Amino acid sequence: MTVARVRRYALLLLLAGAAGTCASATALGGAAPDFALDGRAGPVRLAQYKGKLVYLDFWASWCAPCKRSFPWMGELQKRYGGSGLQVLAINVDASREDADAFLAQVPAAFPVAYDPAGGIAKKYAIKGMPSSILIDPDGQVLHVHAGFNDDAARQIENQIKAALSKTR
Fold first, then answer.
1. Which is more confidently placed, 23 or 101?
2. May I ask the CATH class of domain 3-167?
3. Contact by Cβ (8 Å): 143, 134
């Protein structure tokens, strides 16, 4: 078994265990857990985006759907950022070098933070990659998504548009 597969397997076990103990962390209508993580451009805290609609995405370098979702998230940020959307991405790779190699191939047009120990992923009860949480301007969880495909992209964008129309 390669080192990358061992890391992936360990992360999946970690996240699977977290899901059973923290399921209420992402309850719809509940408060999204705050976090402070190292980011590419300095510290990233959820609280610094209070007042914005936040699309919080958890991802890993080995995640094939993440390679498709990153350009889409960049387009979301570009299209809706002026209306109050903030896309944030949290990487859960144990190695920042793996995440940075991914980002060299698939650039991010939004803030990226690093959660190598998986502590924030546990707080959010993340079960797989990618997973995302839509958080309203008051910090409440609006929607939780697992996986990414064209249907999910349409659904999420419709949820973003609906949420932004309520904040105007």
1. 101
2. alpha beta
3. yes
